[in-house]
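Table S2 (continued). Query chain:
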Amino acid sequence: MSGFAFKQFKVEHDLCAMKVSTDGILLGAWAKLANGQSALDIGTGTGLLALMCKQRTPSVAMTAVEIDGSAYHQAKQNIEQSPWPDIALYHQSIQEFATETPFDVVISNPPYFNNSLKGDDAARNAARHTDGLSFAQLISAFKRLTHDAALFNLILPSSEAQVFIAEATAQGLYLQNHCLVQTKKTKPATRSLMCFGYQEVAYQQQNLIIHNGEGGYSKDYIALCKDFYLKM
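Corresponding output:
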């Protein structure tokens, strides 16, 4: 399977259970980086989010963690062949990962299936299901690895987002930014882009429609992602 070419880098994804997707591109382009000096990508997969963050803020000290062996080697290849080979990549679970200096920003496109049927592909199951990384464990990792001004960006299907928001609130985090994503104006929102923090601030909600009525990309989607797509 051929890779996905962006304007400034290319992502191979043939070894990864989770391929390059609109979800990942949306999150990488939308994430609130807030001039952070250090950022962490939890479950980097192909390395897409780490690479997008580096393109947006080249000065950020970027770290990526991936538990799956094949995905780790794919991310390593993609990072080495990118303009930002200084991204630090670790092959381990986020539950075991430790840092001496807390991160300013965390980004993640996490597994989200709870108690649902699994297929025959173990790697894909691990990437998609919460068995190995529950929402509570993900939030706990964010709190353990960051300071009290840090931000946590992630994307989830809208139904699972409500579960995550409840768990994050219970663990003392506040939803600061929330973008409801619709594929078309006539369709309900299917994805939630979210940014959490330790501080309660003025809550901001917006809607993003990916496709316009003519079948092309909407103006808002183009404005968000034009720096990344090769043909946009």
